[in-house]
Design a protein that fits this description.
- The protein is α+β, with helices and mostly antiparallel strands and 288 residues long.
- The protein is 20% helix and 39% strand.
- The chain is globular.
- The N and C termini lie close together (5 Å).
Length: 288
Amino acid sequence: MTRYRVVHTTRYEFEDVAAGCTLEGRLRARDTPFQTCRFHQIVARPLTGKRREFADAFGNRVTAFTVPAKHQRLEISAINVVDVAPRPARRAAAGVSWQAARLESGSALADEWAPFLSATPLTAHDTDLAAYARESFPTDCPVLDGARALVHRIHRDFAYRPGATTVETTAIEAARLGQGVCQDFAHIGIAGLRSLGLAARYVSGYLDTASADLGADASHAWLSVYVPGLGWADFDPTNDCPAESGYVTLAWGRDYRDVAPLSGATKGAGAHRLDVSVDMVRETTAAA
């Protein structure tokens, strides 16, 4: 069992003085079979006003709050202390073919995971993207092998270029550009998996700097594919690996818009500059 302390700090500097703002944060690490959030706190400067906590449609913990004071700079730090356990081997479901993993319309599983089967504006596919994904899934290929092959090809074929895309860039646009960042690579993979009838979801979180080369200095994103008999299997196209050791899960949804760490509105602030930093420290290796 590994314990991580993660401090995720977002700084806004506005063109004009904001009269106040209303925000939603999806910044609390999830509790899953493989991780437990031991401590969570959001600290804001200026101080927040009213706060409300609730779970969204995907079970992510949301903190809604206001900053009533006038401000031209806003800093929000989310602190999480999380225990992460090793994941068991996947041998039981390793042989499930991708055709068998498709969730047929009208089945109980298709109804349960319906949000992760349908395209969204950010994860829609065209014929080129669908054909690209299909190359990784020959007939009777085990779904985990196909997903791993797709992730490897995305890592190989698309360049990691911060600033080349925005949070509004779609999977189709990023694929045509041939470059992007972690959220684009996750969207491309999800679009491809859904084009094959496989359930796929977008995952946000953090990555230990000792575990990978890219995406570890900010919040990170990867994808999950659903395998009957196993559950959700996580893969990181940015670093060409399963998203297991060294990963902390924050939230999941259909695409980035469902799990944006912070969203909301300000009053009269004009344009803004954004700076995000993540400090992830491995505190201890605790007994299970």
